[in-house]
Amino acid sequence: MTPHADGVVARAPGKLYIAGEYAVVEPGHRAVLVAVDRFITLRVTPCSPAGGYAGTIRSRLYDTGSRPWRHRPQDGLAEAVGGDDDYVISAIRVVEALVAEGGGRLGSFNLGISSELDEADGRKLGLGSSAAVTVATVRAVAGFYGLSLDDSRVYKLAMLASDAVQPIGSGGDIAASAVTGWVDYASPDRVWLRRARQRAQARGGTGDLLESDWPGLCLRRLPVPSVRLQVGWTGAPASTPALVADVQTRSHGADDYTVFLRDSQDCLARLITAIEDDDAARIMRQIARNRALLAGLSRIGGRTIETTELARLVEIALDHGATAKSSGAGGGDCGIALCPPATDLVALRAAWETAGIRPLDLSVYSQDSSAACAADPAEARADSSTASPVKVTP
Q1: What is the C-alpha to C-alpha distance for residues 262 and 175, in angstroms, rounded to an integer?
Q2: Can you give the pLDDT at residue 377?
Q3: Dihedral sign from CA coordinates of 280, 332, 122, 166
């Protein structure tokens, strides 16, 4: 494992939830997500260490436009300089830990990040930028060190990196960004994962953890159904961690919450079967059911999931023969509509715009693992949307 002399470019797509929000934070509970064709792109280029720094991360995500990073003296792994570790630093660290475990030599590099997942003014669209930057960093740094990782291992490394920074998420956004396409996902047991990680680190590495089965985890690509996805943005960014934490705090232990989890699991099982059968009517029925379940959870948790703007988005979609719901944690951000072939998409989007809802030009994105990271930037940008579906299991 020798650092790549010419550098590496990698990218990862954003995501949208189709169904299963909130329930998916509980181990083994399912969700369906899609990857969308907006990306975070990373370029890793080798450099010479200077001033005690291993390199610089450049991104408009930082107030100053960049931040230096270094290898910490106690174990040689990555750490931020002049601030807390973030998703990028954490992803560098988990990949370099794997490299060091295998006897590889750690190198110095600069990392440049560009994003299509937010508005030009920095407002978030709810497309999972934190997950995408984590996945893209894992792919880019692994490529820099010559590590070959399938989608399952990319997910696991990105999940370990994300958990160290923000432990409340389900990892569904990471799964969609790593696997791409339509994704059937169930979250792993996080308590088990943290204990297993501690045991693995005590033995000197996390390589075995990547090869083991993670209790509760389901990670597989679904066939593409014939319903067409339309996405509308309310213009009101929402904080997923805050919403999820608040709803969980208010709901845990309540009998109604237990019923919600049971009903959500049944709904997702029926939805996934309908997707596999490409039965548009059954798909739409379960999307409507999931919306109703989230409305019930909103009452239990005392927080608004479907805002007035999102409710209007849904009403307009229903008027045009589609089915719709909020996507993700709600409280703003995006809503989705699944449209049968007869839906007039032009009329639907025009009606959204009239109501102050911005239609987003997004399509579901699928790619092969081999196209996700490349030494040649042109190769990294190559479109592989015709890749055949694959099943990804831990």
Answers
A1: 22
A2: 33
A3: negative
Statement: the pTM of the whole predicted model exceeds 0.70: yes
Q: Could you read off the pLDDT of 250-275 as tens digits, one per residue?
A: 566 678 899 999 999 999 999 999 99
Please tell me the distance from the alpha carbon of residue 26 to that of residue 189, in angstroms, as a whole number.
8
SS3 11: strand
Q: What is the pLDDT of residues 136-150, one digit of tens each?
A: 999 999 999 999 999
Q: How far apart are CA 285 and CA 193, in angstroms?
A: 35
Sequential DSSP letters for 314-371: HHHHHHTT-EEEE-TT-SSSEEEEEE-TT--HHHHHHHHHHTT-EEE---B----GGG
Residue 180: strand, helix, or coil: coil
Task: Check: CB of residue 162 under 8 Å from CB of residue 86.
Answer: no
| CB-CB neighbours of 359 under 10 Å | 18
Q: What is the pLDDT of residue 241?
A: 63
**Helix 172-179 and helix 129-144, axial crossing angle in degrees, nearest 10:** 50
First-to-final CA distance of the chain:
24
Q: Is the pLDDT of residue 245 over 80?
A: no
Task: Report the alpha-carbon distance of residue 207 to residue 39 in Å, rounded.
Answer: 28
CA angle 117, 132, 335 (to 5 degrees): 50
pLDDT band at 371 (very low <50, low <70, confident <90, very high): very low
Q: What is the dihedral of CA 249, 254, 258, 264, to 10 degrees?
A: -60
